[in-house]
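Suppose a classmate hands you a notebook page containing two proteins, each written out with its sequence and a corresponding row of structure tokens. How would you begin to make sense of it? This section walks through that situation. The first entry is reproduced here exactly as it would appear on such a page.
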Amino acid sequence: ACDLINNSTGYLAKYLDVNDFSMGILDIINLSTEEKAAMSVKCRQAALATSSYQAFERQIYKVYSNVPKTL
């Protein structure tokens, strides 16, 4: 999941760093309405790219296409 969280989809705090975590929360709270809307769109795009039926189908196809044909 770490590869899904970046500055356009959220904030990933440093492991066990409470100060970094609180700064990330404040950064998101202080976004403008437009920035929050843009983040929402990016989050939805990331979710659809990784968790939709189409994404699942692509993953299954990728796995099965790598299975040797002579089983």
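The notebook's second entry, a different protein, reads as follows.
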Amino acid sequence: SGRVNIAALGTSVVVTNSLVTAASHVVAWMSSADATGRVIHVVPGAGSFTITTVGTTAQASFDFLVINAD
């Protein structure tokens, strides 16, 4: 689990984590107030995952939780 920030008008962030695999389940949610920001999807890969969002009006924080399936 953790928290990352996305800059104003940003639409994605790559989070590096050596424990993440392509089979991991990653859940992310917005943890700061923003009128437009929301998570669209999260895609895990070997050693990282990408959080894709709707562009936020200001810098925004997103929390995440990784659950390994294997």
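A careful reader of the second entry would note: The chain has a mean pLDDT of 93.
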